[in-house]
Specification:
The chain has about 250 residues and is α/β, with parallel strands linked by helices. Helices cover about 40% and strands about 20% of the residues. It contains 8 helices and 9 strands. It has helices at about 25-40, 60-70, 85-95, 115-125, 145-165, 180-185, 195-205, 230-245; strands at about 15-20, 50-55, 75-80, 100-105, 130-135, 140-145, 175-180, 210-215, 215-220. Strands 3-2-1-4-7-5-8 form a 7-stranded mixed beta sheet, with helices on both faces. Strands 6-9 form a two-stranded parallel ribbon.
Length: about 250
């Protein structure tokens, strides 16, 4: 990962916003075309921010597109390349190697309205250990297929039934953690794919970490790469592992 410019005097907290990507050579430039101006306008006064593109095993020109964006926007964009596929793997690597006080991520399709980014970072800056957007909490505005809505609600009800969890939406691709949380919890998360989000939240809750859970505006991307049924099955296997093998404690 490209190093963040050092600034020992600036009192603003640092924040890395990670965008995990797999074969997104066309979507990535469009994403940053919207995201960078928003961050300049709304975050610069409060944070030393950076957008980090985490390419996990793309076989198209995604990494080249990411490198071009880094060269075009030095200081605002970082690039990380992994040889293996897996969103969880990309996030663990990007968050573990980051030196930022706040480590966030959002999906390249910007399904979660970017207007919520200050809320996400602000929750961590305000003292929470983990922050997560919710498409299911009261006040959320969500546009998605009936099938995806049903699967999401059923999955989160299952989590609540098995673990008595208090967060409302495990899999929303809009999360942030603090530096301390990253150092303590990332080594405990085993999943390298889509279950990463759920596992992180369940382990954080089991260890008493403070989780900010807030409603967001979210719109489904018609070109989504998520395979709902196969992903749901992998999630259920992950829940079974945590239920019977237990959620690890921070040492």
């Amino acid at each position: 990962m490209n190093a963040r410019p050092a600034d020992a005097v600036d009192p603003r907290p640092s924040a890395d916003i990670v965008i995990p990507v797999y074969n997104e050579e066309r979507s990535l430039p469009l994403c940053l075309e919207r995201l960078l101006p928003f961050c300049r306008e709304t975050l610069t006064a409060s944070y030393r921010w950076r957008v980090v593109i985490a390419d996990n095993g793309s076989i198209d020109r995604t990494y080249q597109a990411a490198t071009e964006l880094w060269l075009r926007h030095p200081g605002e964009v970082g690039v990380l390349h992994l040889g293996q596929k897996g969103r969880g793997r990309a996030l663990k690597r990007a968050w573990a190697e980051s030196d930022a006080d706040i480590r966030a991520y959002m999906d390249v399709d910007l399904s979660t309205d970017i207007s919520h980014i200050p809320d996400l970072l602000g929750a961590i800056a305000g003292g929470h250990d983990v922050a997560t957007g919710s498409r299911l909490r009261r006040g959320a505005r969500t546009t998605r297929s009936v099938k995806r809505e049903f699967v999401s609600r059923a999955y989160n009800l299952l989590i609540k039934a098995v673990f008595l969890s208090r967060f409302s939406d495990a899999q929303c691709g809009f999360k942030a953690i603090s530096r301390r949380t990253a150092e303590s919890l990332l080594p405990l998360v085993r999943d390298n794919a889509w279950f990463f989000d759920t596992e992180l939240l369940l382990i954080a809750e089991r260890n008493g970490y403070r989780i900010a859970d807030f409603a967001v505006t979210w719109e489904e991307d018609a070109d989504t790469r998520v395979r709902i049924i196969s992903t749901a099955w992998e999630d259920i296997k992950g829940l079974t592992r945590l239920r019977f093998k237990g959620r690890p404690r921070v040492g």
